[in-house]
Structures are given as C-alpha cells and as structure tokens.
Amino acid sequence: MTIRPNREPAGGTVAALLRQSDVMTHGAKVRAVAGRLSALVRSAPATSVLCAVMIVAAAVTVVSGTNPDALLTQLGYGLPAWQQGHPLHYLTGALVLPTPELYVVMGPLVVLAVGYFERRVGAPRAIGTLVLTHLVSTVGITALLALTDAEWPWAALLARQTDLGISAGTIGVLAAATWVMPGALGRRIRWIGSTYMVVMVLRSGLLWDAEHLFGWTAGLVIGPRLARRVNRTAHGDPQAIAGRAPRIKRVRAALACTLVVLAVSKFVTALYPGNGGIFGPGLPPSLPLPGRIVGAAVLLALALLVGNALRRGLPLAWWAAVGLAVVGLTSAGLMTGTRYTADLLLWGLLLAGLVAGRGYWPWRLPAGALARALPRMLVAVGGFLALSVLTWWLLRSQLDGGIHPHQIVHRALFEEHAILARTGTAEALLTATSVIWAIALLAVALPLLYSAQSSSRTPHRRRSGGRTDEQVLTDLVVRHGGGTLGWQRTWPGFTAWISSTGDVGVGYKVVSGVAIAIGDPVGPLLRWRAGVAEFQKFCLRNGWTPAWYTVSDRFLEVMGDEWRHTVLGEDAVIDLSALAFTGKSWQDVRTARNRADRDGIRCERIDLRTCDPALRRGIDEVSFGWVNGKPLPEMGFTLGTVAIADDDMMRTYVALDAAGTVHGVTTWMPVHRGGKIVGWTLDVMRRRCDGFRPVMEFLIAECVLQFQAEGYDIASLSVAPLARPACVATADADLLSKALDRLGEMLEPAYGFRSLLQYKTKFHPRFETVHLAYFSQMDLAEIAVAIGRAYLPELSAGQALSIARALRPRREGADPAARPAAVERQPVA
Questions:
Q1: Listed GO cellular component terms (predicted)?
Q2: CB 190 within 8 A of CB 146
C-alpha cells in the first residue's frame, strides 16, 4: 500500500477555496431564488394554491393515462351534463384539462391574469371574480343553448358538446383586471380582447370560444365595480394625469389592432380548426393542414408589419391594409359554403372602416417610389406563377384532382387547402413554394412600406418676406430665449416647425418614428399650450410620436396634467453677479489658474472662421485626438462639435502656451432673453491628452470671469444626463426615475455622467431640473429607443462590444470612482 503524504499540491489551497467559493455562490443563488419564490407565493397565495391544484391535476392525468374523451364525459360541463343532472361538473370540471399540453398554456395565463388581479384587489375578490365569471360563462352558454332553436346548426352542434378547464373564468379575470391597469394599457387590452372574442365566435365558433366571450363580457361588467374600491393613485394611472389620446391616434390604433386580430384569429383557427362560427354549417372541426398553417403564418407576419405602419400613419400603410382586406374578401368569396360567411363579414367591415377613415392617413408616397416597386412586384408575381406551374407539372401524379386556373389565385392568397397532396414529398414542395412566395412579398413590400418615415415628408415652407421656418425660429429664439439650451434649435440636423399663427416655434428631430422636440416651445408663454397642441396634431398626422426633451419646470406648469414627465437631469447654472473665487471651496479653481499663469498658459477667444490655419489645425488635432483615442462611439444629437461652433453667434475659447500649442478648447452658445444675450451655455470642452492637466478648470474659470466682466447674468455648464444630485434622486420615488438612475449607474464607467456632475460642483452652480415629457406611458419604449439612436446613430458592432467591455468592471464590482472622469466632452442632455 502506498501512503501519500498529507500535503496539498501547489495551488491546492487556492483551488479548494475557489471550489468552496463556487459552492457558496451556488448556495446563495439557490437561497435568493427560494426567497423570491417565497415572496411571490406570499404576495399571491390564492393564485399559488390554484396553480398547485392544476399541477396535481396534470400529474394525475399523465400518470393515469385517462383518455380526453373519457374526461369530457366523466367531468365535462355543458348542456349534456346539465340534462343528465350533474351540476357539480361546472366546478369539478374547472380544475381539469383534457390534455397535458393544455396545462402549459393555461398555467402562465392563470399566473399572469389571476396573480396580477389578486395583488391589486386581494385574494377574496380575485377568487370571487374567477368563480363568478366561470359560472356566468359556462352556465350562461348552457342556458343559451337550451333556449335556442334546434334548427340552428351551430347551436345544435354545441348542444352536444362538453368542455373542461377554467379558461373562461381566467379570461374574465383578465377583463376585470384591465380596469385596475394603467388607463391607456387597460383601454387597449379591452379593445383587442373584445375584438378577438367576437371574431373567434364568428369565425371559429367552438364551445370554448362562446364561453370565453361570455366570461370576458362578465369581467368587463364586474371590473369597474371592483376598481372603484382600489386606490388607483398608488398605481400611477396615466389617465389620472393625461387625457385620452387624440382621435387620429385612436382611430389608427383601432384599425391596426382589428387587422392584426383578424390575422391572429386565422392563425389560431389554422392550428385549432373551428366549426365555421355562428354562420357555419354545424359540422365538427376538421384536422389542421400544414399548408393552411403556413398561409396563416404568412398572413400574420404581413398583418403585424402593415398594422405597425398603419398605427404610425405611414403613407403606404392604408393601401397595404386595404390590399390585405381585399385579399381576405377575395379568398372568402372564392370558397363555397356558409363556413366562410364570417370571413366575408369581418374583412368587409375592416375594409369599410379603412375607407371611412381614409382621411387619417393624409400623406402620399412619391410617384418614384411606386415606380421602383412596381417592376419588382411584377417580377415576383411572374416568378411565383412560373414556379407554381413547374411544381404542379412535376407533382401532377401526386395531387388529388386536376389543376384549375382558379387554384393559382388560391395559392397566391395562401389558401393551401385548395390543392391536396397525397404524398409527403408533394406537401413539402408545395409548402416550400409558399414560403418562397412569402419571402418575395416581404422583400418587395417592406422597403416600400417603411420608405417614408423621415422628416423629408415635411416641406420647408417660405413665409412672408421669403423667410424660411428656420429663419423664423431663429428670430423667435433671439426674441423670447428658449432657456440655456435655446440656441440648439438652430443647429444643423434639427428641423424647424412654426405654428399657424407664426408666434410659436419648435426645433425637433425625427428618429425611429419619434419627433423629439428640444426644450420648451419658443414664443410667448400664453401661446405655449396652443402651440403644443398644434405641434402634437402635426406629428400625429405625420405618423410620429411627439416627445419633449429637456423641458423646464415652466413647461410642466403651463401644460398642467396634459403631459406625463420624468426627470432627465440637472442644468448647472452659475449666477455671475455674485461670482468670486474666494474661500476654501474654490481652492481647485484658484490652483488651476495659478498653475496656468506659472506655466505660461493663457486663455484666448478666437473666431474659427478667420483664425490662423495653424491654430485651426491645432484645435482639430485636439478634437480628433480625443475622439480617436476613445474606444467608445462619439455621441451626437444634442452634443455639439467644434464644427458647429463655426457660427458668428457662438464663442470659442482656447488654452495656448507660449509656443502656440493648443491645450484645450471650449465652445459656448448664447442665451437670449428679450432680444439680447444675457448669458452663455457651455457646449464642447476638450483637452489635449498629454497637455496641461487642469486646463478645463482654467478655461471655464477664465470664460465665466470674462462673461462677468462683460455684464452677462448667467453662465450654464449645461446638463449631464442620467445624473442627478443625491437629494433629488432620493426624493423622487417614481418608478421610471429609479430605472433612469439605475441606467446612469450602469453607464457611469463608460461615459462618466455622474463624474461630470460631480465635476461641475467645483463651480458651485445652482441646479435647474429638466424633464422628458410624453403623452402616454405606452410610448415610453418607442421614445427610449429613439433617444438612444439619436445619441448613437452609427453604433457599430465593435463599438457596442467596447461599451460592453467598459461596463464589465462595474458588473464585476469595480469601483467606478477609481476610473477617470469623462470630462473632455460636455454631454448635454
């Protein structure tokens, strides 16, 4: 026997500690998950018990191997169960589903609907609503079938059927829960849900479709009564703050949702074929066909794309929606039998609604865009016809029946059941041709559908005296100001909008379908409300979502409760009348000035258009050196550049040594009030990486002293986005504000927003809050994406990876305070 020495190999102790650390980390994760699960169960105990009962029922069903038909006979509820004297089946059958896979669908629905409602209104009301809506739906449809004329084929078919599960009650709870949801979200779910339930009864007509409609209706009736007993102000209901969306937006959204619901219902009936609805022949459902599922999936994809464009008001959206409605009508009209009566009715109503609401899509596509798309469409149609004929000829012996011309139309409309294949090979080839045809349609339609999102749709108007909107907006900024960021409205890349009365102006930029207005409206304060309403209508008619970026407290006071808002950041403003670099708190600034004097560094104001070419090359060298030396992308939008300062209204100051070397550069925007300049706002600040280290403190100090000597009132250091003083962040308990604080914390290592805010405190400014104002909480995701793309319009994959690497130390626990502050460039919100 070999006796091994009791000795750890090299590194053994470290390896053991790492293994122990991994075990502890794993154990901590398990405990954290268990703690969250326990908290979730405590917050919704009734839902947890209901889910546990469903899990036990699913396990028993799987272990026993009970046949679904046997379950429906033994426990199912419906008219047969009532006639046989089994009223308890309406309760016992609610806890059982006929097949195990249905538990996978019902489980999440119960957790989301019942769990959410229980947390809002309490367990007793949630369970009471669930039981009540379940009984109203199941007993109600039983009574309806018992009283209906037996000659109605649909009713006669359902009178012989039974059902299982609590889906109708769960859907009723979801309907009731919409009344305690945020106003805009609740209204949209009620509209979509009501439309879907009615469409499924008309088109599919299965027993559970009718029960779902009854349960949904019962929930809509019960919900308002329960909602009045709930304190909705704690939930932050948008309707309590902002009014209803304008009519143009509601009509567009309603028609878009209807189109998508029709496509979704077609896809659902392809997976679970119905009996033809209330107008149907009263025949049992047929088996699902793979070709029909593919066609329904293609229609759903097209409907989602067209519906989104329809909602946004894009020019081709109306025509595309009309095309889909005509396709649906044509497809239903070519079929024989009453099974397709509902399709004719539904697509006809949608087409009528689109025609009646034509005025809500006022824009037209340029003729050139249509001319470019037409040849592509003809090529796609010709290729489809050729491919279809070739496929049919090759498979002629594997298809049922002959090939007729009208089947080409069916195939083009993705009605795959028009041709039945006898072999798997034939079915696969037919499906492949449909997929190729769908891809060709999308390739042609998408570029045309989304070709008119840009602001180029808005012509530059010339007003009296031949002045453009940009010139009028500049005059308004000079006359009325517009805050410390007022001059940004005149920058290249922003579009000017002037009200019909000519006294209110807005500078905006359209990104991803969102019109981001910069700062407050420019004009008389009494005209702001009317100007904002007119600008909102202008945006909605263009298919844009309006958002007001970096607005002041005055904007919120004037608009009242019409617009929701959240804090974006703080504008650091220095009052020049009381400025003096005295006292211990100004030590850093005095040290920077003294060192500059000792090292021969001076501050000089220059004109970028007339300065010495060698000096301009030195400024460009500092600017490009800073940009090229950073692995992260340069941000744009409201962040200025040296090139923008090539303007007779802006000022540029540089720090030079005795040899003429540029060590730093700052640019400043004018702040107007009452037709004159009353201050300056810092825009760009960049320094040479290997130059005079405290050059920014020196430049800013010299500039504000010169502004003070010239008699100006204020100097703004501008806004550091996603970075707020601790007192403001602590007092603001808004959920979105907390999310922005968290985002600023994550991005701190990459962009140094909070470090910049801390840096500004050296100059002891007063902070003025700026906000993001938006009309509906439903627009937040779209606005957030647009703002991100505005700041980083050309973000490459490599730059995204650089951002991820910059964020990695923060995720690993590194101290962001140990990283250098990113103060070379002023990130204006």
A1: plasma membrane
A2: no
165 vs 435, residue with greater confidence: 165
Token digits of residue 148: 């209906």
How, if at all, do strands 602-606 and 651-656 pair?
antiparallel
Amino acid of residue 522 = V
Sheet with 602-606, strands from edge to edge, namely 495-498, 505-511, 514-518, 545-551, 766-774, 564-575, 714-721, 676-687, 662-673, 651-656, 602-606
SS3 assignment for 750-774: HHCHHHHHHHHHHHCCEEEEEEEEE
- Which of the pair, 253 or 367, is modelled with greater confidence? 253
> Which residues, 6+ apart, have CB-to-CB distance to 620 below 8 Å?
642
Any idea what DSSP says for residue 454?
Answer: S
pLDDT digits (tens, 9 = 90+) for 291-315: 677 778 888 888 898 898 888 887 7
Task: Lowest mean pLDDT of 37-46, 80-89, 148-157, 585-594, name the range.
Answer: 37-46
609 Cβ partners below 8 Å, 6+ apart?
646, 648
In three-state secondary structure terms, 726 is helix
By C-alpha distance, which of 826, 569, 572 is closest to 699? 826
Residues with Cβ within 8 Å of residue 312, at least 6 apart in sequence:
252, 453, 513, 543, 544, 545
Quick check: 106 and 28 in contact, CB under 8 A?
no
d(CA 234, CA 778): 18
Distance CA 390, CA 384 (A): 10
SS3 739: helix
pTM for the structure as a whole = 0.73
- C-alpha to C-alpha distance for 729 and 384, rounded to whole angstroms: 60
Q: Of 70, 75, 95, whose CA–CA distance to 86 is shortest?
A: 75
Q: How many CA atoms lie within 13 A of 570 on its CB side?
A: 22
CB 364 within 8 A of CB 318: no
pLDDT digits (tens, 9 = 90+) for 617-652: 888 787 776 555 554 555 666 666 777 777 788 899
3-state secondary structure of 166: coil
The Cα–Cα gap between 264 and 243 comes to: 30
As given in the structure block, the two tokens for residue 152 are 């109605």
Q: Is the pLDDT of residue 462 over 60?
A: no
Residue 771 forms beta bridges with which residues? 551, 567
Nearest to 650 by CA among 634, 635, 672, 674: 672
Domains and CATH numbers, the chain: 35-243 (1.20.1540.10), 245-452 (no CATH), 455-563 (no CATH), 572-725+749-765 (3.40.630.30)
Q: How many CA atoms lie within 13 A of 351 on its CB side?
A: 15
Determine how β-strand 545-551 pairs with β-strand 564-575.
unpaired
Query: How far, CA to CA in Å, does 706 sit from each of 81, 278, 679, 683?
Result: 92, 82, 11, 17
Compute the C-alpha angle 533/538/541, nearest 5°.
125
CA–CA separation, 656 vs 330, rounded Å? 77
| Bridge partners for 682 per DSSP | 668
Res. 102 pLDDT band, cuts 50 70 90: confident
Q: What distance in Å separates the CA atoms of residue 349 and residue 527, rounded to the nearest whole number?
A: 42
> Hey, which residues does 654 pair with through a beta bridge?
604, 665
User: Looking at residues 515-528, what average pLDDT do you find?
Assistant: 91
